[in-house]
């Protein structure tokens, strides 16, 4: 699933092409995504100008005067900017066409993505209203995390992956941040001291910034008009390295399942 750095990379990839551009039409080839695309979507957005392109968590917000398109890439979705006519593929479910001939194409093989429309404040939408703070803002601090963790017996890895606690810390980056902070992923959230949360928050911010700078880690969620990936693979120290030697102490890394997700850690370095 695309994580925050991938969605941020996608935003940065599409924004220069569509900001302040007028929507000519939306072509929907498949209305049945995670939630149905409303039949009147084209009528709602036709002739509207994209005034802002923003991100909240893993949601992209394409804002117009009339309302906001809320787009989620789901498990396998991707966006492509096209500058010349290109026949749609099997999983190219939506095209947003602009009057300047630019086309924003949404591909989603597993159809877990979404394209929604709201005429209200998008941040108050049901899907966004309960989200926690963005991890790269001052609102996400060690004291905030420590206070939310009081009396929580949830494993700390699942705790920081909860979007109601903080958005955008998905499985890959939770593995990496806990490894960098030297914290066991199975320790309960309430067991972690304020000092350890200070280290963890610092690691989360550092790793996410590095991932955004390098362009993310997973499969292509933004592709340019040539179809080339818009970013490159980050060097991972824990995720996907089960059985390999720890880069710090050489102890073989161990893999377990937490919340049905792969969790890799060093039994020696992450004993706290």
Summarize the structure.
It is built from 6 helices and 11 strands. With about 270 residues, the protein is α+β, with helices and mostly antiparallel strands.
Question: What is the helix fraction of residues, given as a range?
Answer: 10-25%
In terms of per-residue confidence, which ranges show pLDDT below 50 for 5 or more consecutive residues?
A: 217-232
Mean pLDDT metric: 91
Strand content: 15-25%
Query: Which word captures the global form?
Result: elongated
Task: List the secondary-structure elements in sequence, H or E.
Answer: HEHEEEEEEEHHHHEEE
Helix count equals 6
| End-to-end distance | 29 Å
Adjacency order of strands in the biggest sheet: 1-6-7-5-9
Quantity of strands, as a count: 11
- What is the oligomer described by this structure? single chain
Query: Mind summarizing the main beta sheet?
Result: 5 strands, mixed
Q: What does this 3D model show about the protein?
A:
The chain has helices at residues 4-18, 41-45, 142-149, 156-160, 171-181, 194-214; strands spanning 23-28, 52-56, 59-63, 68-72, 78-82, 92-98, 103-107, 114-118, 222-223, 254-258, 261-265. The relative contact order is 0.16. The protein is built from six helices and eleven strands. The chain has a five-stranded mixed sheet. A four-stranded antiparallel sheet has the order 2-3-4-8, with helices on one face. Helix 1 crosses helix 6 and helix 3 crosses helix 6.
